[in-house]
């Protein structure tokens, strides 16, 4: 009699059946001795296979062990054995927590002198929970958010300071509110009453100067730069003669002029480099630029990304 081969469902491959011979015989219509052979030989962790043995007995009756040579057929199920471990269910993937921090772009729009990302925005971002590395990655992906002086490769700029791990807090300016001119006689101009109001709200003279440099049209009369009024009062310390610590003759002051650049009327980078050569510090250069806004043009004006922003970015 020909051997019989039974093909079982794939879901059974690679696992022990855990069924008795009677269960198998009843479930799949097998004879008991065939089912016993399946329980013993089927289900190891390898390419699953099944052996079916057929006995040829008296009167060619299938399954009678009384005589005749048995015939064995082995069925090997193709493909890899199942790798799923029923005893160890797969753990659920951890959910990524939602980032509830204010976005860096929103911080840039709210703080600092301009809508770009500057020193004031950097410190506000730290307060919001950002790490320096996160801010650096953001700026690398959004270089348009940086003034030219703060771009990668610009010495003394914000990006270079972040990489160096030393961001200068003296370059951080707070943005005055839109209501900065409502305390004085005219809501269109910034006067002494507005100055006192802003100071009482926690804004420093440096913050106020930054605002006035960004909004020169808010000054009139003697309060404009060089008029001897409010603006000059804020920058007056820069005009005081310096003296040596030993009480001797005053030390020579650095020289500022427009003679080194292309134009004798406007300040440029060549003029500032000449001032540096004469001993001018960055603080003195900032004071000089604040007093001479009218000598800046093009990209060098506040917010233009040039000379002014390189010192007040």
Topology:
Layout (H helix, E strand, L loop, with lengths): L20 H8 L3 H10 L7 E6 L16 E6 L27 H7 L8 H9 L4 H10 L16 H7 L27 H9 L4 H10 L15 H6 L33 H9 L4 H10 L15 H6 L1
Antiparallel strand pairs: 1-2
Helix pairs in contact: 1-2
Please give a structural write-up.
- With 313 residues, the chain is mainly alpha-helical.
- It has 3 domains: 10-76, no CATH class; 104-171, no CATH class; 192-240 and 255-312, no CATH class.
- It has helices spanning 21-28, 32-41, 104-110, 119-127, 132-141, 158-164, 192-200, 205-214, 230-235, 269-277, 282-291, 307-312; strands at 49-54, 71-76.
- It has a two-stranded antiparallel sheet with strand order 1-2.
- The longest helix is centred in the first third of the chain and has 10 residues, at 32-41.
- Mean pLDDT is 75; it is low at 1-17, 37-45, 80-84 and 237-251.
Q: What are the main properties of this structure?
A:
single chain; 313 residues; mainly alpha; 3 domains; two-stranded antiparallel sheet; 12 helices; 2 strands; 4% strand; elongated; disordered N terminus
Tally of discrete structural domains: 3
Q: Please describe the biggest sheet, giving its number of strands, its sense, and whether it closes into a barrel.
A: 2 strands, antiparallel
Order of helices and strands: HHEEHHHHHHHHHH
Query: Would you report the number of β strands?
Result: 2
Sheet-strand content, in percent, reads under 5%
Structural class: mainly alpha
Side by side, the strands of the main sheet go 1-2
Radius of gyration: 42 Å
Gap from first CA to last CA: 96 Å
Number of helices: 12
pLDDT < 50 stretches: 1-17, 37-45, 80-84, 237-251
């Amino acid at each position: 009699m020909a051997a019989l081969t039974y093909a079982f469902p794939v879901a059974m491959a690679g696992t022990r059946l855990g069924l008795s011979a009677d269960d198998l015989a009843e479930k799949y219509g097998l004879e008991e001795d065939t089912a016993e052979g399946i329980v013993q030989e089927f289900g190891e962790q390898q390419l699953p296979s099944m052996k079916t043995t057929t006995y040829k007995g008296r009167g060619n009756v299938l399954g009678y062990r009384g005589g005749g040579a048995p015939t064995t057929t082995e069925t090997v199920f193709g493909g890899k054995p199942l790798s799923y471990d029923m005893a160890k269910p797969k753990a659920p993937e951890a959910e990524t927590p939602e980032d509830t921090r204010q976005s860096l772009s929103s911080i840039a729009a709210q703080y600092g002198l301009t809508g770009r990302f500057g020193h004031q925005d950097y410190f506000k971002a730290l307060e919001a929970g950002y790490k320096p590395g996160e801010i650096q990655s953001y700026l690398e992906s959004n270089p348009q958010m940086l003034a030219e002086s703060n771009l990668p490769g610009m010495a003394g700029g914000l990006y270079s300071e972040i990489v160096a791990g030393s961001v200068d807090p003296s370059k951080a300016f707070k943005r005055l509110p839109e209501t900065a001119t409502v305390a004085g006689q005219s809501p269109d101009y910034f006067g002494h009453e507005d100055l006192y109001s802003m100071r009482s709200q926690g804004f420093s003279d440096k913050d106020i100067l930054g605002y006035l440099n960004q909004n020169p049209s808010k000054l009139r009369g003697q309060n404009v730069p060089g008029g001897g009024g409010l603006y000059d009062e804020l920058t007056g310390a820069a005009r005081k003669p310096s003296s040596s610590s030993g009480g001797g003759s005053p030390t020579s002051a650095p020289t500022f002029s427009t003679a080194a650049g292309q134009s004798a009327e406007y300040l440029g980078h060549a003029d500032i480099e000449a001032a540096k050569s004469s001993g001018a510090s960055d603080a003195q250069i900032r004071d000089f630029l604040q007093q001479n806004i009218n000598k800046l043009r093009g990209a060098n004006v506040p917010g233009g990304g040039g000379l002014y922003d390189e010192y007040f970015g």
